[in-house]
Write a structure and sequence with these properties.
This protein has 151 residues and is an all-alpha fold. It has five helices and no strands. The chain starts with 23 loop residues before the first helix and ends in a 5-residue tail after the last helix. It holds the Pfam family Cytochrom_C_2. Keywords: Electron transport, Heme, Iron, Metal-binding, Signal, Transport.
């Protein structure tokens, strides 16, 4: 059945990824897929901001997806989906050992995603660029603390 099987439902319509977890490997696969999609949205934002004429429609779509993932991210790290023998994940055990600190990082990302979407809605290219930088900083901060670099 795979990642979209009956044990795990992932709704990506409109960019929202909400896993219904049946097992740790499914939760990990859903998390990986969600963050790959998020990476594609970040690429679209960066590409859209690098042009002479800012591509507000493309950036707006990506901003909605980023905000939706930021809202859904709280369900992407269920208990038992962390590092364990036989489970391949880049998520560090600190996520589950320091849940308040991890939630603070998630909250920072969610706030920055909302701020970015507001900047995009304003149509101000400089505001979009500034908000995109802030959003990227929240991602980096979480990765530095809660994600391994090893494969």
């Amino acid at each position: 059945m795979g990642i979209r099987g009956c044990c795990l439902a992932v709704l990506l319509t409109g960019g929202l990824a909400t896993p219904l977890v049946g097992a740790a490997p499914d939760a990990i696969r859903a998390r990986i897929e969600t963050y790959r999609e998020l990476g594609a949205s970040f690429k679209a934002v960066n590409d859209g901001l690098r042009t002479d004429e800012v591509q507000t429609v493309l950036i707006g779509q990506a901003a909605r997806h980023i905000r939706n993932v930021a809202q859904a991210q709280y369900g992407l790290f269920p208990s038992g989906s962390g590092p364990a023998p036989g489970l391949k994940t880049k998520a560090r055990a600190e996520i589950w050992r320091q849940p308040a600190r991890f939630k603070a990082a998630q909250d920072a990302f969610a706030g920055a995603a909302t701020g970015f979407q507001q900047a995009v809605a304003s149509g101000d290219a400089d505001a979009m660029r500034q908000a995109a930088r802030k959003l990227g900083e929240t991602c980096k901060g979480c990765h530095d603390s809660f994600r391994t670099r090893a494969d």
